[in-house]
UniProtKB/TrEMBL annotation:
The keyword Nucleotide-binding applies. It is found in: Cell membrane. It comes from Actinocatenispora comari. Residues 10-233 form the ABC transporter domain. GO terms for cellular component: plasma membrane. This is ABC transporter ATP-binding protein. Keywords: Antibiotic resistance, ATP-binding, Nucleotide-binding, Transport. It is a peripheral membrane protein. GO terms for biological process: response to antibiotic.
Length: 305
């Protein structure tokens, strides 16, 4: 593994970036330790790609500092410590996959054997194929192989499975998990909670250019299963409602009650039994962002307006 000795693979401090009137990144702090597998999860336009580009030294931030293994991103890239699969960039058309891997390996300070990389990335049967005759899933696997050639300690993947079908996605993530199993660091961005859930140890939720939550995948999965139970209940007491089974947080606005719960069946049964005057029941999936906020603010008091 090509590694610069430093405990943190990634360190972002106070990163900000605007494009004209659009604030893409609004102050991101993020530390990723060596060996972590982290998903950067967020909706379209959340600022994931801009954050990744700054992290890799491909874009300059307006403010803040990005370091990989305690050094400038470009120095870490030049040392072969970092491999990346980005959304942009075409494979050289007309080249054979094996030729391309051989050519790029020659540029690396400490290349891995082509056969090993091809096996890890699942491209061993594609080496004689032309790069412009590959399917989307095969193209992504070749790009993944190219990123592995320098034997990186950190792999950065920006929405690597965008546009791939379910089978191609599954194969891709199997290869990534194989890479991560060797104790290397992986950061990937995705829109899909399932991808984050299946592959990452930690999920960082980014929304409107900010980190709005950061937690273990287990904790995030539990919160993603959260439901909102709403009802009309005159004279509701938020403190008493907070004792309902499964209740994570309670909001009371006049007669309107919102209970965020991890067990909506139990909450609803107890609500019906304990509050006969309650009516207009409604149960809905909690928005992921709400779930993350509830997760990261466990001490938040019940809100009353
Ligand atoms: N080169 C650019 N010029 C102007 N605005 C940009 C540019 N790149 C990104 N933006 C804007 O900055 C914001 C963040 O974009 P970014 O691509 O970083 O988000 P993202 O989370 O990666 O989105 P997606 O999931 O859609 O790829 C968006 O509002 C986007 O329209």
């Amino acid at each position: 593994m090509t590694e610069l000795k430093h405990p943190d693979a990634v360190s972002l401090r106070g990163i900000r970036k605007r494009y004209g009137a659009v604030t893409a990144v609004a102050g991101v702090d993020l530390t990723i330790g060596s060996g972590e597998v982290v998903a950067l999860l967020g909706p379209n336009g959340a600022g994931k790609s801009t954050t990744v580009d700054i992290m890799l030294g491909l874009r300059a931030p307006d403010a803040g500092r990005a370091e990989l293994f305690g050094t400038r991103p470009r120095a870490a890239l030049d040392a072969g410590s970092v491999g990346a699969v980005l959304q942009t960039g075409e494979l050289i058309p007309g080249a054979r996959v094996g030729e391309l891997l051989t050519a790029i390996a020659a540029l690396q300070p400490h290349p891995l054997p082509i056969g090993q990389v091809a096996a890890t990335a699942g491209v061993a049967d594609l080496l004689t194929r032309r790069t412009d005759r590959l399917s989307g899933g095969q193209t992504q696997r070749v790009r993944f192989a190219l990123a592995l050639l320098g034997d990186p300690s950190l792999l950065v993947l920006d929405e690597p499975t965008a546009g791939l079908d379910v089978a191609a996605r599954r194969d891709f993530w199997t290869s990534v998990r194989g890479f991560a199993a060797a104790g290397r660091t992986v950061l990937f961005s995705t829109h899909y909670l399932e991808e984050a859930d299946e592959t990452a140890d930690r999920i960082v939720l980014i929304d409107q250019g900010r980190v709005v939550a950061d937690g273990s995948t287990t904790a995030i999965r539990a919160m993603a299963a959260a439901r909102n139970v709403r009802c009309t209940l005159p004279g509701a007491d938020p403190v008493a409602l907070a004792d309902l089974p499964g209740a994570a947080s309670v909001e009371v606005h006049g007669d309107a009650v919102l209970v965020r719960t991890t067990d909506s069946d139990a909450t609803l049964r107890a609500l019906v039994a304990g509050y006969p005057q309650a009516r207009d029941f409604e149960v809905a999936a909690a928005a992921l962002t709400d779930a993350f906020l509830a997760l990261t603010r466990p001490d938040a008091p019940a809100e009353v307006a």
